[in-house]
Design goal:
Layout lengths: L2 E6 L4 H12 L6 E7 L5 E7 L2 H10 L7 E7 L14 E2 L9 E9 L2 H10 L10 H11 L8 H10 L3 E9 L6 E6 L4 E4 L4 E4 L11 E4 L4 E5 L4 E5 L4 E2 L4 E2 L15 H7 L1 H9 L3 E2 L4 E2 L8 H5 L3 E6 L1 H18 L3 E5 H4 L10 E7 L5 H12 L3 E6 L5 H5 L2 E4 L12 H21 L3 H22 L2 H11 L4 E6 L3 H16 L2 E6 L16 E5 L6 H12 L4 E7 L11 E5 L8 H18 L18
Parallel strand pairs: 18-19, 18-20, 20-21, 21-22, 23-24, 23-25, 25-26, 26-27
Antiparallel strand pairs: 1-4, 1-10, 2-3, 2-4, 5-6, 6-7, 7-8, 8-12, 9-10, 9-11, 11-15, 12-13, 13-14, 16-17
Helix pairs in contact: 3-4, 4-5, 7-13, 7-14, 9-13, 9-16, 14-18, 15-18, 16-18
The protein binds fructose -6-phosphate (F6R).
Fructose -6-phosphate binds next to α9 and α16.
Length: 618
């Protein structure tokens, strides 16, 4: 959801900023732009509607933008449609009112309308439809070096007036050797190099340059020169950031032999889940080792209720978690869209534990709901992928997914990581409540085999593509399952719609009869997750209901189940596992179907229409 890169140092900024934008393009790709300060201290801005490649082409046509400091942006539109004018950077008035300030922004300025009116009354002229332009004008209005209000102080003062979310990077012609950044609600990280700093929305744009970095906290401002940095609050009180060592490898964020990040990440799942499990399974003692939860064991064991919050794919993982926690740990559990939880006056009782599920750890709705839960006294846990992200810092404790950076906009390996972590949490609590060591050991032995079993499912990728090709021109699909396979069906439908733009609905198989069955017409694909489990026979009955109305059945079934071929037109097989663990396998064929469908329809899988990774606005 918008990517920011900024640089100050001794190297030419333009190629470095472009490289950073390419790494961050998954965060938004409707327009791109950059501002570089030249040797004379003047700002040179190039920006355009379209992908980073369009910007690159435009920059290549002239002499480029020489200079050793600058800011850059790749946009996912919120206020104002994608256009050259609405692209970032934005600068203050070109007239003599202007102070030569340019800014890039990720987030939303909620009170932009009233600020804009105030600024217009003071003679500022706006050229774009964005909320961001209001912020740069406000900084410009407050900038008053003659009275000691330099760029840093002007930024602090402007942000004290703003409500909403922001990560910003700002440069100014009057202070050509200074770069100012700030954040509230949207992530921003500052990489520390030798005589240089590189600022970015996430570490992937930093690690090629340095492994040392710090994350700005909410309401913090950083002033960077080539040799030093200073971090402060909006009230100009100095704060010391915690310096981190980024542990990413460059290869983790490169495509390698794969045509798309999504396919790479689907195929990475055996390796990423081995990482999720590493050091956490004690099969001999029948224990799950989750160091991150150790201080909260009494709270978890005595929990009266667990509430899980997330959005999109993370919510589907939470829905599977609900089955698991109730089944294995026997604690009443609810799942709720974070966006709804926050606004409905939720009841948090004494022993309520809230778990936030998130790949990025930066989803605005999930953060806001978590804050609400904290304010009402809940113990909060995170199941998060990005280390050091906002949710990981806000929660009392948590378990990292450890699946590595997820760059494909459609979440795949993070989903299985979330399901795996929730399985571990369920067993962790369950063992301390009712589950015997022997029972937990058995589950753990099964979990150990999951990465290898996924490899077997991945071998069917070509067959899944061939089958998908037969249905890919159909515009409406159903995804159906029962028990833990119901959220898998929801996830299968979400994957298909977000990258292939096919309308798909996922639901409990039984629910179909209560209305959606009216949709079924001749040849409509219905994907059934129909593994051998306690509800198998019921799922087969639901297949008959679809078939009787002309629907075509694609089944995900258990290896060795020959009976299913009598009921399904096409079948993909997954190895057998206990019912509670089946989603770790049944999800994979649906991910591959969605991927192949999108490619067959000619879509850009990693940059789906209207979407961007990490939704940092509510
Ligand atoms: C779908 C997808 C989204 C995210 C959702 C939450 O493929 O990626 O639905 O799951 O935006 O994001 P996180 O997990 O980062 O909180």
């Amino acid at each position: 959801m918008c990517g920011i890169v900024a640089y100050i140092g001794s190297q030419q900024a333009m190629p470095l900023l472009l490289e950073g934008l390419k790494r961050l393009e998954y965060r938004g790709y409707d327009s791109a732009g950059m501002a570089v300060t030249n040797e004379q201290g003047q700002l040179q801005i190039t920006k355009c509607q379209g992908r980073v490649s369009v910007l690159e082409e435009r920059l290549g046509q002239g002499a480029g933008l020489p200079g050793t400091s600058g800011i850059a942006h790749t946009r996912w539109a919120t206020h104002g449609r994608p256009s050259d004018t609405n692209a970032h950077p934005h600068r203050d008035d070109e007239s003599e009112r202007g102070s030569g300030i340019a800014l890039v922004h990720n987030g939303i300025i909620e009170n932009y309308a009233s600020l804009r009116t105030w600024l217009e009354e003071r003679g500022h002229t706006f050229t774009s439809e964005t909320d961001t332009e209001v912020l740069v004008m406000l900084i410009s209005e407050l900038f008053d070096p003659a009275n000691g209000i330099d760029l840093e102080k002007a930024v602090q003062a402007a942000l004290r007036e703003v409500t909403g979310a922001y990560a910003i990077a700002v440069v100014c012609e009057h202070e050509p050797d200074v770069l100012v950044c700030a954040r509230k609600g949207s992530p921003l990280m500052i990489g520390i190099g030798q005589g240089e700093y590189i600022v970015a929305s996430d570490p992937s744009a930093i690690i090629a340059h340095t492994g040392q970095a710090f994350a700005l906290e909410d309401y913090q401002v950083a002033r960077l020169t080539r040799t030093a940095f200073r971090t402060s609050t909006l009230d100009n009180v100095c704060v010391s950031p915690k310096i981190l060592n980024l542990e990413l490898e460059l290869q983790e964020i490169e495509l390698g032999e794969y045509p798309h990040y999504m396919l790479k990440e689907i195929f990475e799942q055996p390796r990423s889940l081995r990482n999720t499990l590493r050091g956490r399974l004690d099969t001999i003692e029948g224990r799950v080792v989750l160091g991150g939860l150790s201080d909260f064991i009494p709270n978890l064991v005595r929990a009266g209720r667990i509430i899980m919050l997330g959005q999109g794919t993370a919510l589907h993982a939470a829905m599977i978690g609900e089955y698991l926690i109730e089944d294995l740990a026997k604690i009443p559990t609810e799942v709720e869209y974070a966006s709804e939880f926050r606004y409905r006056n939720p009841i948090i009782e004494d022993r309520t534990v809230v778990i936030a599920i998130s790949q990025s750890g930066e989803t605005a709705d999930t953060i806001a709901a978590l804050q609400e839960a904290k304010d009402r006294g809940a113990i909060t846990l995170g199941a998060v992928n990005v280390v050091g992200s906002s949710i990981s810092r806000m929660t009392d404790a948590g378990v990292y997914l450890r699946v590595g950076p997820e760059i494909g906009v459609a979440s795949t390996k993070a989903f299985l990581g979330q399901v795996m972590v929730l399985t571990l949490i369920s067993l962790f609590i369950g063992r301390r409540r009712f589950l015997s060591a022997e029972t937990v050991s058995q589950y753990l032995r099964h979990l150990e085999t999951v990465p290898d079993l996924i490899e077997r499912v991945l071998e069917q990728s070509d067959a899944i593509r061939e089958t998908t090709a037969r249905y890919v021109d159909r515009e409406n699909w159903l995804f159906l399952g029962r028990g833990t396979n119901y959220p898998v069906a929801m996830e299968g439908a979400l994957k298909l719609k977000e990258i292939s733009y096919i309308h798909a609905e996922g639901m409990p198989a039984a629910e179909m009869k209560h209305g959606p069955i009216a949709l079924i017409n001749d040849g409509m694909p219905a994907v059934f997750v129909a593994t051998r489990n306690s509800q198998y026979d019921k799922v087969i009955s639901n297949m008959h209901e679809v078939r009787a109305r002309g629907g075509r059945i694609i089944a995900v079934a258990t290896e060795g189940d020959q009976d299913i071929t009598a009921h399904a037109d096409d079948t993909f097989y997954v190895p057998d596992l206990p019912e509670a663990l089946q989603p770790l396998l049944t999800t994979v064929p649906l991910q591959l179907m969605a991927y192949h469908a999108a490619v067959l329809r000619g879509h850009d899988v990693d940059k789906p229409r209207n979407l961007a990774k990490s939704v940092t606005v509510e």
